[in-house]
Amino acid sequence: MTQCQREATLEAYEHWAPLYEPVAHNPLMRVEEEAMRHAWPEVKGRRALDLACGTGRYARLLADSGAAHVAALDFSAGMLRRASCTTRVRANMTQLPFVADAFDVVICGLAIGHATTLSAWMTEVSRVLADGGTVLYSDFHPEAAKAGLTRSFKDQNDRTHTVPHRCHSAAAQESAAIEAGLKVTAVREVRVGIELREPFADSEEFYRRWHGLPIVLVVSACK
Fold it and tell me: How far, rounded to the nearest angstrom, does the alpha carbon of residue 39 sit from its chain's CA centroid?
């Protein structure tokens, strides 16, 4: 992802922030969260990071699950201002301002496609994750992106924005995880018309055209 793409991504999220609720607020996010909860690690009494937290929906779920300490990190000031987590950090997710072994659990929702490189992302996650720790992340599926689907939204002025996304294949993600000292333990796909079935505006045509296409990828790995 180029500097221009990084700036475009940040600009998109700054526009989205005023409307971005700290809960799963559309069909894609709701089915993504369901798949994440299906693979949810044990977090009670553990140190947890909501990486690329947005407005902190996973930080809230981590706290509700009994985590001893939760930190929320994002590069968008607008998003962070809306997160209710006590420890909020503005930073790049490939340059984490934490010491090694700082967390037992890292959760990241729908963001790895914004990483400049997979290796940098995986290396940093592995570095801040303690031995025996777990990382659980999701992303807009690379197959959906290749097919031409995008993540887009309308801002407060009814203007449409598309969030830039870099395709990292599932195989590339697993390879990067291994190189960073992580072991992939589970992979789950959310498919159009199968797991994703919730009606929305013009959904009948969407489900007919894209039936069976993987739209969300969920990966769990341990150190």
Answer: 14
Looking at residue 137, which CATH number applies to its domain?
A: 3.40.50.150
**CA pair distance 52, 155, nearest whole angstrom:** 20
Domain containing residue 90: 3-222
The two tokens of residue 188 are: 């789950």
Instruction: Kindly report whether the global pTM for this prediction surpasses the value 0.85.
Output: yes
H or E element in which residue 85 lies: none
Amino acid at the residue 210: W
pLDDT tens for residues 151-190?
Answer: 777 777 778 877 778 889 999 999 999 999 999 999 999 9
Please report, to the nearest 10 degrees, the dihedral formed by the alpha carbons of residues 40, 81, 28, 52 taken in order.
-50
50 three-state secondary structure: strand
Work out the angle at residue 222's Cα, subtended by the Cα atoms of residues 218 and 223, and round it to the nearest 5 degrees.
145
Tally of domains within the chain: 1
Q: Who's near 42: CB < 8 A, 6+ residues apart?
A: none
